[in-house]
Specification:
This protein is mainly α and 564 residues long. 63% of the residues lie in helices and 3% in strands.
Length: 564
């Protein structure tokens, strides 16, 4: 069966066709929902329930249109509802303990779901002042003006706000990350099967592509790096599929992933462009561009320009740069020791890939100060695995204890494959684009800044299977085992950590009922107060500024408070 015939077969057969069709419907619906919200800001609109309804109806329409037969359609719709419900339930029942989540991601979701239009009113502090008072923010509380909430790309916040605007708890706004993991896995599976990877390899490799440790450890937080990693995986594997199938569905899926990625982080547009560049040049060389493709890409470009008015054009108008403040701030400052940060980027990357994550950053404990680490063999053991599975923002070892070895094996396997590119040109092109998108970032040693690095061994392993190179296949098996163990550790660690964090949060804050919470604002970072105010409001309480010592202190991240 040729590529076109196999693509048509997969899109209409059960059960694989149903699972993939639902994944495509979810991705297109999320992109559509983001687009109507983001462009609506230009016309003074705010987020309401109707955008979510439109997105869900679009997803249901796609499922009914693409799947043949009443039984397949009912199964598809049931899967669609089940996946959305599961993602919302898991998100709602787990509490985010991420520093960045509390400081600016959660306030962004709160604001967008309660009427903030960042184009009309670009400064978050101006919007928060009256809203904060309406939900119990104390008059004598610190003034709030969260710069990052004002200037940061807001695609994931917009999607998260779709849940909160229906009255669901704030934590339910984390659901898009779980949906993106699902879409990434199904997109990878389709691409690998189209490329001739047998099921015995396609299933585990696509699972590994989806279960990127960055995506897993951030799945129950408001961090957005894992979501970016999933979007880039969808983009990469959609390009692999489209190169063979020439299907509009694959092209649209790639464009959806690029649109969302460009509005997740400032690095999104750069990464998406560099990943696409080698493939686009190859198609240009082979004269494979068609008029209909250019039309679809042109529509996507218009959507990108309109939907990106905030933050990029707003920032340019307000601060003179579309990527403010990263053009003016050193993101690495105080993140590691001065000696480490003075090292060249490549050396920092090698340390990050090979050293124990107990060397992550100074914590006040001399035994865990990275300045005391001089060898990759130091401090290996269970403590390292525990920290890996429970930490959403590791500076050292962010892809797991075995990833340095996995990359080394990938390099060896690639050397055997490079001698003949027959059958693996597509893998080589997307791998080259992925590599370009990594090395362009001077902070590539910090795992969450380059989540797409996880995909390089997957692409090399898949190419080795397709080429049927005996040595490359053997190396691919070892790589898959190492990555599988890493993903398993991440899943178990994140599940355990989320449970403990959620239990701790409810123990500390759930028992206060409607009584005010006394907060020591002199020792609590003021950027945490908007999210805390809203969460207390959700349970019918407020916080008051503490004026004396606490009899029963509560310490949650950087919040210092006590029960009255």
């Amino acid at each position: 069966m040729n590529a076109r015939g196999y693509a048509a077969h997969m899109s209409s057969s059960a059960p694989q066709g149903i699972w993939y069709t639902v994944a495509f419907a979810l991705m297109l619906a999320m992109t559509f929902t983001w687009a109507i919200c983001a462009t609506g800001f230009l016309f003074g609109a705010t987020i309401g329930r109707w955008q979510a309804v439109c997105g869900f109806l679009l997803a249901a329409l796609i499922v009914c249109r693409e799947l043949p037969g009443a039984r397949a359609r009912w199964l598809g719709l049931s899967l669609l509802i089940g996946l959305l419900s599961a993602a919302l339930l898991i998100s709602a029942l787990t509490v985010d303990s991420g520093y960045d989540g509390w400081t600016y991601h959660q306030p962004g979701v709160i604001a967008l779901s309660h009427g903030w239009n960042p184009v009309v009113e670009p400064v978050f502090g101006d919007w928060w002042a009256p809203f904060g008072r309406s939900i119990g923010y104390p008059v004598n509380g610190p003034a709030i003006d969260i710069l990052w909430t004002s200037v940061y790309p807001k695609a994931l916040w917009i999607l998260g706000a779709q849940a909160v605007v229906w009255g669901l708890p704030l934590d339910s706004g984390k659901y898009p990350e779980l949906i993106l993991i699902y879409v990434a896995g199904l997109t990878a599976w389709r691409a690998l099967r189209l490329r001739g990877v047998p099921d015995a390899w396609a299933y585990p490799l696509s699972l590994l592509a989806a279960l990127n440790p960055l995506c897993i450890v951030q799945a129950t937080t408001f961090y957005i790096d894992g979501a970016l990693g999933s979007c880039l995986a969808i983009l990469i594997f959609s390009l692999l599929s489209y190169d063979l199938s020439r299907s509009r569905r694959d092209l649209v899926l790639a464009l959806c992933a690029a649109l969302i990625a460009c509005n997740l982080k400032y690095t999104g547009p750069v990464y998406a462009a560099l990943i696409v560049l080698p493939v686009a040049l190859w198609w240009l060389y082979k004269r494979r561009w068609l008029a209909r493709e250019l039309q679809i890409c042109g529509i996507a470009a218009l959507l990108l320009a309109a939907g990106s008015a905030n933050p990029y054009f707003t920032n340019l108008k307000q601060f003179g740069s579309p990527i403010y403040p990263i053009n003016a701030w050193d993101l690495e400052e105080n993140q590691m020791s001065a000696g480490f940060l003075e090292e060249p980027s490549l050396k920092k990357l090698m340390i990050s890939l090979s050293f124990s994550n107990l060397a992550d950053r100074p914590t006040g404990d001399p035994a865990s100060d990275e300045r005391n680490f001089s060898s990759p063999l130091q401090s290996r053991g269970l403590a390292e695995f525990k920290k890996f599975g429970s930490t959403a923002d590791l500076r050292i070892g962010g892809f797991g204890p075995f990833f340095g070895l996995t990359l080394a094996l990938s390099l060896v396997a690639a050397c055997f494959l490079i001698r003949g590119a027959v059958g693996v040109t597509g893998f080589a092109l997307v791998a080259a684009g992925t590599l370009l998108s990594i090395v362009v970032n001077p902070h590539m040693w910090w795992a969450r800044f380059v989540p797409q690095m996880w995909l390089l061994p997957v692409l090399v392993a898949a190419a080795g299977v397709v080429r049927r190179c005996r040595i490359a296949r053997s190396l691919a098996l070892v790589m898959a085992l190492l990555m599988g163990v890493t993903s398993l550790i991440a899943v178990i660690g994140r599940a355990t950590s989320s449970y403990l964090i959620t239990q701790s949060y409810h123990y500390d804050f759930g028992g206060i009922g409607t009584r005010p919470l006394l907060v020591d604002t002199s020792n609590t970072e003021s950027l945490f107060l908007p999210a805390l105010t809203y969460r207390l409001h959700e349970q019918g309480s407020v916080f008051e500024v503490a004026t004396g010592p606490c009899a029963s202190p509560i310490d949650f991240i950087v919040i210092h408070a006590c029960k009255r």
